[in-house]
Structure formats: C-alpha cells, structure tokens
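Minutes, project check-in
Item: structure for the 286-residue chain
Input as provided by the requester:
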Amino acid sequence: MEKKKIKIKHRSVGGWIWVVVKYFSLIFFSFCAVLPVVSCVITAFKSDAEYQSTNVMTLPSSWTFDNFVRAFETAHMGRAFLNSLIVMVFVLIGAILVGTQLAYVLNRFKVPGNGLIRNLFLFASLLPAVAMQVTVYKIMGNLGFINHLYGYIIMMMGTDIISVYIFIQFMENIPVSLDESAIIDGASYFQIYWKIILPLLQPAIVTSAILKGVNTYNEYYSASLYLQDQNIRTIALSLYTFTGPLGNRYNLICAGVIISLLPALIVFIICQKQIYSGITAGAVKG
C-alpha cells in the first residue's frame, strides 16, 4: 500500500501577522465590552464611602446586597417594572397588528399611490425624532395624553417603519395563490389576513417584537417628557432617582441597572431559541 503523504501547510510571515492581529483585535474589543459590565457589578456592591474613596475596579470589602435592596425600595422599581410591562405588552400588540395590516395592504393591494406611500414611509424614517418632538408634545398636550400611561402607550404604539419593511419583505415570499384559494373558498380579506398571513409572518413578528420591545423597554427620552408623575414612571426613569444637583450615587445606580437587566436576561435565556430562529428566518426570508 502506498503511504499517503500528509501535507503540512506552512504559513507565511504575513499570514502569521494577520492571525496575531485578528486574535488580538478580538481579545481587545471583547475586553472593552466586558470591562464596563465588570466595573458596574463591582460598584454595585460598594458603600457610599467606599465608592468615594476607592477606584472603580477596586473590589468591595464586603459583598452584601444592601445597595440592591435600597435601590429597589427607594426608586420604587417594583411599580416601575409593572408600568414597563404594561407599556411593552400593549405597545407590542398594537404595533404588530397595525404593522402587519399595513404591510398586508401595501403588498397585496396594488392601489394607485402604493409606491408613493412606501416612499413617504421611507422619508419619515429619515427624519430625526428629536426634531418632531415640539409638534408631538403639543399634540399630546391638546389631547390630554401627558402624564397618562395610556397616552404614552398610544404614542409608542406608532408603527415602526423598520418593522413595516420587515413585514413587507417577508410577505413577498408568501404565494398569492394562498389568498386566491381562500377567496375561492369564500374567505374575506380579513380572514385571509388573520388565518393565513398572520400565522405565516411569525418569524418576522418575532424579529420585529425583539426590536420594538428592546426600544420600548429602554426608552428614556420620550418617557421623561410624557411620564412626569412619580406613580407612572417606567424602569428607565426609576434609575434617575439617584441623580441630582448635589451629586450622583453611582453605587445605587449600578445596582438599579443590574436589577433592570435581570428580567431581559431571564427572557433571553428562556426564549433564545425562538429569538435566534426568528432573526435568522426573518433575515433569510427578507
């Protein structure tokens, strides 16, 4: 039997340099991403005096959960979590229903002005949200929606332009023959949307819900404008309880940040399979 010769691939000097640069950049940027999280965790366990007298990376003398308890009680984070949950649930339901119906109309019905409407949505996505806040605030004030949770929900429920395009692109891959077969069987347009289109849009809905949910949960600017009452603050606003003109209590802020991250982390761990499959399927279908 002939012995097979094993070819050993030798790297050139340039190849080794590229390998070193690649792994060094990966380690460096990973370190940059992890460092703020580590410093936040360390700071969350320090007392007020210890935070003032030590470096941010100096380990605390005692690892107690006093700061977490104080942050949760002082900032009324239990109520803030409930408000954020209420807002996020209603915003997601409303935005998904409105977005999928709008995408269904724009994709399936070739009415005059269809292209113009799509271009207007694209144009609206290019406008900075801050530039329109004066007009939006005046409208919210005239409608009596300021300092009311339902008013903030209605404003946040506004259809996300990115989600509409995700739904439209995904719907391009759903055969029109399904609609035609359903019409022959006597189904109405709403029945086609509810029983055929909406279930098939599940991967795109998961992708859109992730984007919209994260944005709603972390929203601070709009919440600070329209939710000024202490009883209707969201979790993002509760973290600013420990800031003021006399100084910021960063040890309590870091403890509150970690508490606010726990629900999102738990949801991600439990639903990571659905999240990954939804993003992958949405990207491929789109």
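Outcome recorded: The two ends are 54 Å apart (CA to CA).
No further action items on this chain.
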